[in-house]
Amino acid sequence: MSARDSILASIRANRPAGDYPLPDVPLFPPLVGDDLVAEFGERLKRMGGLVCEAGADDPLAGVRERLAGAKVLASAAPEVTGNRNLAAVARAQDVDDVDVAVVRAVFGIAETGSVLFTQDELVVNSVAYLAQHLVVLLDPADILPNVQAAYRRPEFGRAAYAVLHTGPSATADIEGVLIHGAQGVRSLTVVLLPRAKA
Amino acid sequence: MSADNLDPNIRDGVIHPEVRPPDDESERDQDGRRLRHAEGASKPVRAPAVREPQPRGAKIRGNRPVDQAEAAERFLAAPLHQAAHDERLWDLRKKRDVAAHGIPEWEELRDLASEIKTHTLSHLDRYLEQFEAAAKANGVHVHWAADGAEHNRIVLDILRRHEAKTLVKSKSMLTEECGFRHFMGAEGIEIIETDLGERIQQLDNEEPSHVVAPAVHKTRLDVAAVFAKTLGTDPDNDDAHYLAERQRETTRPYILNADAGMTGCNFAIAETGSVVTCTNEGNADLSGNVPPLQIHSIGIEKIIPKVEHLGVFIRLLSRSALGSPITQYTSHFRGPRKGTEMHYVLVDNGRSARLGMEEFWTSLKCIRCGACMNTCPVYRRSGGLSYGATYAGPIGLIIDPTFNKRKYSTLPFSSTMNGSCTNVCPVKINIHEQIFAWRKVLVEEHQIPVLKQGMMKAAGAMLSRPAAYRAAIGAADSALKVLPRFAVYNSLNTWGRKREMPDAPRQSFHAWYKENRMKGGKA
């Protein structure tokens, strides 16, 4: 008998007695107030992320300094032109020299300050971790109230890879000291910038 | 005054100001408020003139029973380590309380999580088949392993077929169960742990001592000593930022050059065939997204039916573990990247047998948050390595004996039975009741010493029946008055030693609850 069949047989033989129905999960009221943009920003900041409003003259004013400081800038968003074409990257490792990566988020979550990407937004998945800094463009209209609402979105059933980022890479593994940039990006900045109208 | 609004120039609220650069970006948010996500508020360890050596774990002597109390004595005899450990974990427990109290439906979420898990476990064959079919449809190779040895052989086989010599991995308690690193080392495969805490433990040739914080029993001085020896860092520099940065710099080349990457699994979704990992460092995403070959090791109990159920579990997991609303990264791997291969290894390793243990099968609900460890007075004061087993703390006491009844026969006695573990468990495992049930089983099967057996017989008859126990407490005011004194204080009960038990409350919690909360027939 294969391991598969013997494991399944053992599970069937050992099935716990009793009836354990699958509960319906009610939709809980959001923990956040009506101003989703403010709630999102507040929670993201508490998780070590940075937030900036789009500037009136220059939507990217808040991150201009960060972008200008990058020797290698990889952008997966049309709003920013980088000097590394992600579509032409052959190997996941090749983006290790990226200083700043720019990506558009699918949506944000006010309850936690999270943003979602799939492989489509990232183009090269690894750039969101190998880059030193991550700049995220998020349309304020794309902010969902809570985690429950997020998990009703179709991306999780469709995308080969879907990931929620909540602030930058962090660790507290040495005596509880909080350190950003444990393995992945050292900073994550969300720019609240509406999507370009198609 | 709120510590959150401190002038950025005043560093009173900062942990270890003496070793932190004033421009440290991890310290404050953009509004200048102190950041605390995942951080400990425990006091820094002051280095004495002579460095206190790190107390080591339990002495393993083959199959002989682990002497947890002996290892715990050595941990208690290292006051710096003991105090730092105790404070750090108690701080996590308090942060968990704050996070839990911030959600009105917290108790309802715990009930739902428990019910979803018990439902899935009682239909596990069906959900595993559904998961397998979905994963295969997504282009994932699915393997089944009856035990740890088979898991290791399957992974080795995959690596050999790809001529892979190096593998980067994120933290996985399952691979600890399987003895994965030791096995691969002997086969000439280089394994690199990418979680900082786990990397520290790997470099020090120790097991993880905590399911979430693998090196929590070490001070930064211990880490400095380990890194000086293995990574060539400055032995006199114990700045946590310096140490973490050196680890980042030395691990990055391994990540870039690895032939294969591996992660564990927090949740496996039956309807989509996805594997979900939760990390703060992003190291599971590096392991899964950089090397050309990715492998995910999955304990078969990690299955949940639907994506929408993550809306329950993700809300509970990090709040229970660290008190943060979510981990920095919640990653959903569903299919391979273009031009790469993706493999799942579904591992039983005793789980299907545990399913048939009437009193213990619900321990399979565990989502490995570590809350029971953080709240446990025995764990906090003895360190995870004192248990000499893959799983330490309260959850370890009820899981470890399923792997080896003789070797872990004494572990269920390393508990004060205060029930705090049960109260904080996000999936409502009746941990302390299972600890007691294990004591009974081990006595009946003659796995424990004769003196302890006598103590158990005296207390056991009553403690084994909750209703009788409550009736007895009501009559005598307190369990402490009911239990024979020698069951609480004797040389075999390590946790009665050095402690006089508290005065018994005049009204038991159950009595209070019935009086105040069950009025009108509403619980």
Automatic annotation (TrEMBL), chain A:
<dbReference type="Pfam" id="PF02589">
    <property type="entry name" value="LUD_dom"/>
</dbReference>
<dbReference type="InterPro" id="IPR037171">
    <property type="entry name" value="NagB/RpiA_transferase-like"/>
</dbReference>
<dbReference type="InterPro" id="IPR003741">
    <property type="entry name" value="LUD_dom"/>
</dbReference>
<protein>
    <submittedName>
        <fullName>L-lactate dehydrogenase complex protein LldG</fullName>
    </submittedName>
</protein>
<feature type="domain" description="LUD">
    <location>
        <begin position="88"/>
        <end position="193"/>
    </location>
</feature>
<dbReference type="InterPro" id="IPR024185">
    <property type="entry name" value="FTHF_cligase-like_sf"/>
</dbReference>
Automatic annotation (TrEMBL), chain B:
<dbReference type="InterPro" id="IPR004452">
    <property type="entry name" value="LutB/LldF"/>
</dbReference>
<keyword id="KW-0249">Electron transport</keyword>
<dbReference type="InterPro" id="IPR009051">
    <property type="entry name" value="Helical_ferredxn"/>
</dbReference>
<dbReference type="InterPro" id="IPR017896">
    <property type="entry name" value="4Fe4S_Fe-S-bd"/>
</dbReference>
<keyword id="KW-0813">Transport</keyword>
<dbReference type="InterPro" id="IPR017900">
    <property type="entry name" value="4Fe4S_Fe_S_CS"/>
</dbReference>
<keyword id="KW-0004">4Fe-4S</keyword>
<keyword id="KW-0408">Iron</keyword>
<feature type="region of interest" description="Disordered">
    <location>
        <begin position="1"/>
        <end position="63"/>
    </location>
</feature>
<dbReference type="Pfam" id="PF13183">
    <property type="entry name" value="Fer4_8"/>
</dbReference>
<feature type="compositionally biased region" description="Basic and acidic residues">
    <location>
        <begin position="9"/>
        <end position="40"/>
    </location>
</feature>
<dbReference type="InterPro" id="IPR037171">
    <property type="entry name" value="NagB/RpiA_transferase-like"/>
</dbReference>
<dbReference type="Pfam" id="PF11870">
    <property type="entry name" value="LutB_C"/>
</dbReference>
<dbReference type="InterPro" id="IPR003741">
    <property type="entry name" value="LUD_dom"/>
</dbReference>
<feature type="domain" description="4Fe-4S ferredoxin-type">
    <location>
        <begin position="357"/>
        <end position="378"/>
    </location>
</feature>
<keyword id="KW-0411">Iron-sulfur</keyword>
<dbReference type="InterPro" id="IPR024569">
    <property type="entry name" value="LutB_C"/>
</dbReference>
<keyword id="KW-0479">Metal-binding</keyword>
<dbReference type="InterPro" id="IPR024185">
    <property type="entry name" value="FTHF_cligase-like_sf"/>
</dbReference>
<protein>
    <submittedName>
        <fullName>L-lactate dehydrogenase complex protein LldF</fullName>
    </submittedName>
</protein>
<keyword id="KW-0677">Repeat</keyword>
<dbReference type="Pfam" id="PF02589">
    <property type="entry name" value="LUD_dom"/>
</dbReference>
